[in-house]
Design goal:
The protein contains eight helices and 43 strands. The protein has 682 residues and is mainly beta. Among the domains are: 140 residues, no CATH class; 125 residues, Cytochrome Bc1 Complex, Chain D, domain 2 (Orthogonal Bundle), CATH 1.10.760. 46% of the residues are buried.
Length: 682
């Protein structure tokens, strides 16, 4: 009896030690979103709202690589580090995977792999680091820093016709789930043999995958199709959707679409969040929260596979009369009212012009550059006869997604809100000697003999280019715009060939060009002949692109704030608090509150929210219950991914990836640094 009691007591103490003395999963950070539920939340609370003011720099790790302007196509290092319990694993812009000491920041080892190396994160499992790349998943031993040859082919898991993968995989004991550019697949471990593959028909997974081990469900969100305008024959049933997949069969459990026939680049973004949430009836329910650039938040019951918030969805009637040949537009889109909508897509140009009406020069400038545009509502069909202005093309929510602040039962998410202009135009591929037939080659050769060609070469070519395809600086780089002149006579958008007066007006903010009426007529005849031939021989290709709308000072052409942090209550779906995020000095010396942001957020049990990613280079701590700022530190470069935290030898560390960015509004310089903060460290 005594022996039995002793055995029971020993067993209890052993269980106690296992539960309370061994590191919990939350103390580690095994994938870039914290765990497979993608909560970006830590149970750690040694650093809390009462003492965060005492948070100081512990160490800085610098890779030693200083990226130049032309390094690949990357804007920054977007991978949140992972913590294994023994080491901190980081990526670098020059495609190294690096292990550093979590206490000192000293480098343990590094290994170079194929670009892009862990662009948006890593996964740690069973003493190995799993790194997404351009050729598959590399498996690296944490202990040695070498490829683990027991996995795949010499440490590389790759399938046939492999595509680049940006996001961290989901790794289980004998399975790995990988999001490739346009499909998701399951592979056996350690062999790397493919189990199943789900083709997404041109849609992509930009943000990441989440996983629920209770229901064996993979959850992800998808982009639009490859291009804004394209073949309508392509099945788009996976595009702009939150998708739930059986992890072990690859079969679709359910999926829910946001934007239908997306021509505006309104992807769904961010890792979906999975957890047991306290809902409106105060009951626990396992739900998925998924986010869209449209500002809609989808709430999915993962067990029943239906929309938990379906009663709060309404249809918005839209214009489905496409001005573009063979393009399909839906006659409705959806609006989700609960949780409260994060942004409004509608851009009101008239309202903005009233806002800046006292500044005549700026007013005239905006009026001029938007003269061929439509705005004022969402989902305006694209056309060759006008441009479309709206919010949302790069947020609302951005790719890093949200955090679930379990302490306060709220979801917190950063958003952007600045206008974009979508331009539809024709391009013509330059004559390819290998592919173009003799008749077409002769035509292009003869064009050079036309008098109009010499006028174009002298007065137009330096801006509109030799191929006449113009210049469109896309996405984050600014608003530099020189229109394509291919198909100019087939569009009503540009009528500057009609008269010298219109010609001069259209070039009002360009370099002065002297053009006589006679020269203009010759030029018009030249384009008439050229366009006719291009149309008859099916050589015009339809394109659409999006650009920032900037005012004459280089500011976003909308009312600030441009960036916000928003917290909404999971129980009610209502916004708890909303604050501007990021600061910038404007052209008139005034301080703008609420700037562009591309970093991310972390919440902790210490009633803290950490946020970074603004051009002012700050990492800021807020009291997560009310959004009040408690602490801030300036980094050398802007934070470029969500922060993370861990404990080591009894100390809690806050880690920020600082690499800056090449986005508009950020400094051109980039770095490759990891910052570590801890309490009372000098």
């Amino acid at each position: 009896m005594l022996l039995k009691n002793f055995t029971n007591l020993f067993s209890f103490k052993l269980i106690f030690l296992v539960i309370f003395l061994l590191p919990s999963y939350s103390e580690n950070w095994h994938t870039s979103s914290g765990n497979y539920k993608s909560l970006k939340y830590s149970e750690l609370e040694k650093i809390n709202s009462a003492n965060v003011k005492d948070l100081n720099l512990a160490w800085i790790y610098k890779n030693g690589f200083n990226p130049d302007e032309d390094i690949y196509f990357r804007y920054n290092n977007q991978a949140t580090p992972v913590f294994t319990g023994k080491s901190l694993i980081v990526t670098s812009l020059d495609d190294n995977i690096i292990s550093i000491d979590p206490e000192t920041g000293k480098e343990n080892w590094r290994i170079k792999i194929t670009h892009p190396a862990g662009k948006r994160g890593l996964t740690y499992f069973d003493d190995n680091i799993f790194v997404p790349s351009g050729v598959g998943i590399f498996v690296i031993s944490e202990k040695t820093g070498n490829f683990n040859s027991q996995y795949g082919k010499e440490g590389l898991i790759s399938g046939k016709n492999i595509e680049v993968t940006f996001v961290p995989p989901i790794v289980l004991k004998n399975k790995i789930f990988v999001a490739h550019k346009s499909f998701i697949a399951s592979y056996d471990l350690p062999s790397g043999k493919i189990n199943w593959k789900l083709d997404l028909n041109g849609s992509r997974i930009w943000s990441g995958i989440s996983f629920d081990n209770d229901t064996d469900t993979l959850v992800f969100v998808t982009s639009n199709l490859v291009s804004l305008i394209g073949d309508t024959d392509i099945k788009n049933d996976y595009s702009n959707s939150v998708v739930l997949v059986d992890a072990f069969t690859g079969k679709i459990k359910c999926k829910f679409k946001d934007t239908i026939h997306d021509h505006w680049d309104l992807d769904m973004v961010g890792n979906p969040i999975i957890d047991n949430f306290t809902t409106g009836n105060n009951k626990q329910k396992k739900l998925v929260y998924a986010f869209s650039k449209t500002g809609n938040t989808f709430v999915v019951d993962i067990e029943e596979c239906n929309l938990f918030n379906k009663d709060h969805i309404e249809k918005i009637l839209t214009d489905d009369n496409s001005p573009l040949k063979d393009q399909i537009y839906s006659n409705y889109q959806i609006k989700i009212n609960k949780p409260e909508k994060l942004i409004n897509l509608d851009y009101d140009l008239d309202s903005y012009l009233k806002y800046i009406s006292n500044d005549k020069d700026n007013f005239d400038y905006i009026k001029h550059i938007t003269r061929n545009s439509k705005s004022g509502e969402s989902y305006i069909p694209l056309s060759f006869d006008y441009d479309v202005i709206m919010f949302g093309l790069h947020g609302g929510p951005e790719w890093p997604g949200a955090t679930y602040d379990k302490t306060n039962n709220q979801i917190i998410i950063p958003t952007n809100h600045y206008p974009w202009i979508i331009r539809t135009y024709f391009v013509c591929c330059a004559p390819n000697k290998k592919k173009i037939n003799r008749k077409i080659k002769e035509f292009f050769n003869n064009l050079s003999q036309f008098k109009g060609h010499s006028i174009y070469k002298e007065k137009c070519q330096s801006c509109h280019r030799k191929d006449k395809n113009g210049l469109y600086i896309r996405e984050f780089q600014g608003d530099k715009y020189v229109p394509s002149l291919n198909g100019i006579t087939k569009s009503n958008k540009f009528n500057s060939l009609d008269s010298v007066k219109k010609f001069k007006f259209s070039h009002k903010y360009s370099s002065k060009i002297n053009m006589s009426e006679n020269e203009l007529n010759i030029l018009k005849n030249y384009f008439d002949s050229r366009d006719k031939y291009l149309v008859e021989n099916n050589l015009l290709i339809t394109r659409a692109t999006w650009q920032l709308i900037l005012d004459k000072y280089g500011n976003f052409a909308s009312k600030p704030p441009y960036g916000k942090l928003t917290a909404f209550d999971v129980n009610t779906g209502l916004i708890n608090w909303q604050i501007p995020f990021g600061e910038k000095k404007m052209h008139d010396g005034k301080l703008l509150k609420g700037d562009i942001n591309f970093g991310g957020v972390l919440s902790t049990a210490g009633n803290l929210l950490f946020a970074t990613g603004t051009p002012d280079k700050n990492i800021i701590a807020y009291k997560s219950s009310d959004g009040n700022e408690l602490w801030r530190k300036k980094l050398e470069y802007a934070g470029s991914s969500p922060p993370m935290t861990y404990t080591y030898k009894g100390e809690q560390y806050l880690i920020v990836n600082s690499s800056g960015g090449k986005y508009y509004g950020f400094e051109k310089e980039m770095g490759d640094a990891i910052y570590a903060f801890k309490l009372n460290y000098k």
